[in-house]
Structures are given as structure tokens and as C-alpha cells.
Design a protein that fits this description.
It contains one helix and eight strands. A hairpin with a 2-residue loop joins strand 1 and strand 2. The protein has 117 residues and is mainly β. The longest helix is centred in the C-terminal third of the chain and has 4 residues. The strands form three sheets. The chain has a three-stranded antiparallel sheet with strand order 3-8-5, with no helix packed on it. The chain has a three-stranded antiparallel sheet with strand order 4-7-6. Strands 1-2 form a two-stranded antiparallel sheet.
Length: 117
Amino acid sequence: MAIKIPLVLTNGQVEQLQAGDTIAGTGGSAVLTETEIDFGTKPVNNKTFTVTDAGVSGSNKIIVIGSASNATGQVGNDWEVDSAMFSAKANTGNFTLYVNAQFSISGKRKIYYQILN
């Protein structure tokens, strides 16, 4: 079995992380925001949404995942069977959310998103 030694990048140089060394972190916590999106009554495979959030600027990156929370009018985790992919583009005060699903979706769903600087 090979012994694996972690590598770190320090001041542009790759070095081995020695036993007892630590890596400084920024600490803090990740903030996830939950919101509801509505695909409407006609089933669709893809849809574009505008999600308003004053904390978003055009230079941010947005990460989006499905939430297992029940959306309005739903009784369970619909993302479990919807097989959707998400992508987002940040704007000032909002972001454009693109949802592409393997199967047709209708009704409301909840998502989590995180704003990265």
C-alpha cells in the first residue's frame, strides 16, 4: 500500500504537508438560502427563472441544489424523481436560474442556493 502525503501550494510552490502542520482556513459558515420556484401547470423539461436577492452582484458565482423540503401544494421530495440539473448566472440584485430536467416537471419545487464571491 502506498503512503500518501498531502501536497499544499504555498507562495506558488508545491510542498509536502508534514505531520503536525496545519492549513489556515477562513472559518465562518456556508449560508444556504431556500426559495420556491414554480414550473406552472403545463409540464416542461426546461425553464428559466429570475431569482431576486439583493446580495447578488454580477461578479458572484451561484451554486444551486434541489431542496427536499415540501413546496406549496406538494407532499414529498419531488426532486428525487425529477432528475434536474441547475446552472445560474449572477446579475446585480438577482440571478438567472436555468433548470433542465430529464422528465417533464410541473408545479412548485424548492431549491437551495449559495452566493460565492
